Structure formats: C-alpha cells, structure tokens
Amino acid sequence: MEHILLRELDVPDIHQLAVYQQHGGYAGLKKAIQQHSPEEVTQIVIDSNLRGRGGAGFPTGRKWSFIPRQHPVKYVVVNADESEPGTFKDRQIMEKNPHQLIEGALIAAYAIQAKAVYIYLRGEFWDIAADLDQCIEDARQAGYVGENILGSSWSCEVYTHLGAGAYICGEESALLNSLQGIIGQPRVRPPFPAQVGGGLYYQPTVVNNVETLANVPWIIVNGAAAYKQIGVGESNGTKIFSVSGHVEKPGNYELPLGITFRELLYEHAGGIRGGKRPKAILPSGASGPVVPATDKVLDAPLTYEAMTDIGTVLGSASIIVMDEDTDMVWAALKMAKFFKHESCGKCTPCREGTFWLQKVVTRILKGQGTEEDLETITNVASQMQGTTLCALGDFAANPILATVQHFRGEYETYIKKNQGGGETKKPARTATAAD
Q1: Is 90 exceeded by the pLDDT of residue 418?
Q2: Domain boundaries, the chain
Q3: Cα separations (Å) of 48 from 104, 211, 220, 221, 232?
Q4: Does residue 9 surpass a pLDDT of 60?
Q5: Under CATH, to which class is 328-419 assigned?
Q6: Do residues 359 and 382 lie in contact, with contact meaning Cβ atoms separated by under 8 Å?
Q7: CATH of range 232-323; options 3.30.230.10, 1.10.287.620, 3.10.20.600, 3.40.50.1240
C-alpha cells in the first residue's frame, strides 16, 4: 500500500521542497484555495470522517466548523508536543515529511480563515523546530506562506514555538497557556478553544495534532469518498501505530484502521521478542487501560469503537507490548511515577491522587502491602476519574485500575509474602518501553 503519511518510505528526500512538489506537494493547498470556498473545504473534511489522531478521536471537520466564521482574528495551533510514553509518530512526520504537515496546517487555516499557524513542539524537539523553520521559509519563497498566498487575498503566517517538555502541555488548553507565556496548566472550560475567549490569545482557535493535519492534503486532492474507503466503520483512513516494548521490530507502521493486534504484532512488528508469549498491551501509551493479551484482545480490530468494546482506548495508538515475564505491579509503579511527576498540581484529585497511587503501589512492591491497600488504590483512582480540569487524572488512574482488575493475583502474591514475613524481592524481568 502506498503511504499517505510516511511517504519517505516511498519517495526518498521528500523532506526537500522540490521533491515534495514533484510528487504532488502543495497540490492540496492549491486546489483548496483555487477551487473551493473555506466552507467547502471544511465540508470535505467532515465528509471524509477524519478523526483526531492525537488521542481523542474527535471528528476534525466538525472541530473546524465550530469556529465563528465572521470573527476577524482566528488561529490554527498544531499540537506537536508528543509527550505520551510510547508515541513517536509525529516526530517522524516532522523529520521526514515536514512539508505535508505545513500544507495540512495551511489548508486548515484557509478553511477557518486564520491569520496565523503556530506549531507547538516539545522542548526536546529543538532540532526539528530549526529544520521546520527552514521548511517554512522555503514554502514562503514558493508563495505558500505569507501575504496573498497563491495570488489570493488570503494571507497567513506560520511559526514554530518550543515548549519546555511538560506532559501536561499536550492537553490543548495547557498548550495554549504555554504558547501565550502563561504557566502550562489546563484552563477552566467553557469557553472552549473554538470560542471567543477560549483559544490562543483568547481568540477562536483550532488545535489539531500533527498526524491529523498531515492527512488533510491527501483528502483534498483525492476526495472524501476515497478516504472513507480506507479503514472500517467509523474509523476511516490509515493510522500510524507506534509499536514498542517486547517486540522484535519496534517502530512506526502506517496501516489502515481495522487491522488486528495480531496482524500488527506478528505480520509487521516481527512478533514477541525471543519467541515469548505476550502478556499485556497498552494500546494508547501510559494513559489508557492496559489489557491482557488474550485471543479476544489480539483479534480485536484496531478501531476507536472496538477498543472500547475490550475495555480500553485507541488514543494515539502508541502500543506498548509486555511479554510473559513482565511484573505487572512493577509496570503499574512505573506508570504511577510518571503521572505523579507530570501532574501540574492545579487539581487536588490529580495532585494528591497521583501521590497516593505511587505511595501505595510502592509499598506493595516492597513487600509491605496489605489487602486493604488494593481497596485504597481502587478508591483513590475512582475519585480521580472525571473530577479534574483535564484528562490527566483519568490517564493516571486508568492503567493502575486496569492492572488491579486484570492482574490482581500479582498484587496478592506480594501481599501474601508480606503476611508470611520477610521482604519480597522483585521478580526478574526484562526491560520494557516504560524504561
């Protein structure tokens, strides 16, 4: 299958403007401006059923349609923070196929008639930001950025901005605060980013993920119907699956939505490392519920709907695989430590809950836990869900609750050893992506 996003696998040097143009680059922007009104472009994206690839899966065109058409100042913000553990797809797009991101962002800006695009990158991406700046300048010289783009009356600037590497700034309202120079913490909503008072500099703003926008040029050139033919049901198009952990060939794989875990892991990622059996899978990095690698799970189609059916979420499709030797209590502690460190502290349930989850799981892992500790974990985690300004509280609770649900026996083994006296030694294990 020809790639829509990871096109460097088909076209060497596509990061160069001349090569990108030779292979249809910026044809989508030209078609949008020269053949369609902004409203028509939005409708095409709505009809394609492109869903946000950053994790939430919200319909992209619908998000654009929320922008008030007559408001004079509007922005597009590209979420290139990519801070979810196990996610490395956006980085590859920006490194290897940057002009497709720029083109997609400009099409989005045309659709809402934005005056500027801001690409917000995590601080560790300083080298990518420098390369993007050069790509933006090349696009400017070709007439795709700046004043009166492609001879139209529409003008739009594109800028890069580096954050400081905080996980919370992947959340759109915290990202907007950071971009404005305010502390990176979530905003109280409403108003939402698309509304006056809710977006960048309190103007209506569309916030889209890198992968989401990189799909847009193909959709404009080939049409919504062609895009909907890829994938299954309400999960259309291709998806970049970032696969890591205990697999033979970790990496990014662009495949149609609807393939199964089994196909992805064994036909593309080379199977489980060392010929071992899979034990558990995190389908959406650290933020979604872990699921045991049963036949039902392995044969589940990778779609937004099917992941809900097996008790988890697809998210950004950052798939971390753990083999049969993985200590799931240890894995839970790794995730608890991560979220405790990354909590911005603005919400009490998240700030205090992440602290207590780490504390209690640590106690159990050290062989000092009791049966009551399992009830404490469940109680604390359940009180974090749905009570915070952003989803980080839910993200922190999800994997811990799921390990207790699916692997309770491993917790009980530690607890029973404590009740029998002596300190429990952690079982031998091999490193996972959580390292």
Answers
A1: no
A2: 7-229, 232-323, 328-419
A3: 15, 15, 10, 12, 13
A4: yes
A5: mainly alpha
A6: no
A7: 3.10.20.600
Give the position of tokens 């593309």: 268
Residue ranges of alpha helices (H) inside 223-276 are 224-228, 261-262
- Is the pLDDT score of 52 beyond 50? yes
Give dist(CA 398, CA 383) in Å, integer: 12
**Do you know the residue count of the chain?**
435
pLDDT > 90? residue 417: no
The CA-atom distances, in angstroms, between 215 and each of 48, 51, 151, 391 are: 10, 10, 25, 25
pLDDT of residue 99: 98
Q: Is the pLDDT of residue 423 over 70?
A: no
Q: Which two tokens stand for residue 228?
A: 């909907």
In the predicted structure, residue 424 carries a pLDDT above the cut 80: no
What average pLDDT score do residues 133-140 get? 98
- Residue 187 DSSP label: P
Q: Is the dihedral of CA 228, 17, 120, 164 positive or negative?
A: positive
Specify the CATH number for 7-229; select among 3.40.50.11540, 3.40.630.40, 3.20.20.60, 3.20.20.140.
3.40.50.11540
**How far, in Å, CA of 30 to CA of 21, rounded?**
12
Cβ within 8 Å of residue 372, ≥6 positions away? none
Q: What one-letter code names the amino acid at 395?
A: F
Determine the 3-state secondary structure of 320 from DSSP.
Answer: strand
Those residues whose C-beta lies under 8 Å from the C-beta of residue 291, and which sit 6 or more positions away, are 280, 281, 283, 297, 310, 311, 312, 402, 406
Percent residues over pLDDT 90 in the chain:
94
Helices (H), 238-309: 261-262, 295-298, 304-309
pLDDT band at 434 (very low <50, low <70, confident <90, very high): very low
